[in-house]
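pasting for ref
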Amino acid sequence: MSIGAVVFDLFGTLVPEFLLRAWEGMFEGMARALGADASSFRREWDATIVERQTGGFQTVEDNVRAICGRLGLVPTNAQVAGALEVRDALYAERFRPQPGAVETLTWLRERGYATALVSMCAPDAPALWRASPLGGLVEVLVFSCEVGLRKPDPAIYLAASGGMGVDPAECLYVGDGSNRELTGAAAVGMRPVRIVDPTEDVEMLRPNPDDWTGAEIRSLGEVRDLLEGAGSV
């Protein structure tokens, strides 16, 4: 079956993944703003990941306040705002299109390919996406915080293919391999390819990575090569 649709991951694929040192620094800054112990704050942040990514919290602020409650803290509004500013600053710096992202998505649209985004994310990601240069360039948006599903649950991939009205076997899946997303996509019949950024010479955030030995590309521009038959999946 020929490929008629492309499903993209978000972080590490269409926008950069976070530098690990900056990611860890975010928790230190948020805890400092709240007057919390950094290790305790981080522990509770990790403990609330499923709720955060599946709609259990309507906002990141709700998540922060819930963590403070677990830690026995009663922060002021100013302290909560300060913690959120630390997170917002990191996301503002990293939430930008990867090289070739806008051009690739535009090329796919012009040639009639259906497109979807599948992202495991907190409740602030959808607004960041819609406000970015990428907003409006992908037809079907599947944010975990909105649909209540996480990778590699088959249902999150089927939500993407179903939203596009195509069979999973018609879908090329492009992702960096975090959260076992590539094997998850393959399990429903999609054709996954891992995108590897050769310029990444520092440690990046890679939660639950796939042990992937399949197809790889080095840039988003290579998606076009694959679809035009210059490569294979």
